[in-house]
Amino acid sequence: MTGMRFMPKGYGGRRRNPDEVKRDGWREQRVLAVALDDHRLTWPERELVRQLGEKLYGPATSGQEVQR
């Protein structure tokens, strides 16, 4: 292959935005990725997500407290 460079699968094309990736993950694999500071969530919803995250994975290590 003279003059052609090998491009691994997944390179090129349109880059999807994070919300598209999250939506597709939920629809196709039932995996939910939620940011605690997502403005679409109410306080009780954010609190539920925080509690689930801590139950499954332990406390966040970033040291940042989400503004409530």
Task: Present the secondary structure layout.
Blueprint: H1 18-29, H2 43-57
How does this structure look, described?
Residues 1-22 are annotated as: Disordered. The chain has two helices and no strands. With 68 residues, it is mostly helical. The longest helix has 15 residues, at 43-57. The protein is elongated, with a radius of gyration of 18 Å. It starts with 17 loop residues before the first helix and ends in an 11-residue tail after the last helix. The model has no long low-confidence stretch (mean pLDDT 86).
Major sheet characteristics: none
Query: What structural category characterises the helix and strand content?
Result: mainly alpha
Mean pLDDT: 86
| Distance, first to last CA | 57 Å
The coarse overall form would be: elongated
**What is the count of β-strands?**
0
Query: Which spans have pLDDT < 50 for at least 5 consecutive residues?
Result: none
Beta percentage is: under 5%
Q: Count of helices?
A: 2
Defining traits:
40% helix, elongated, 2 helices, single chain, mainly alpha, 68 residues
Summarize the structure.
The chain is mostly helical and 68 residues long. It has helices spanning 18-29, 43-57. Residues 1-22 are annotated as: Disordered.
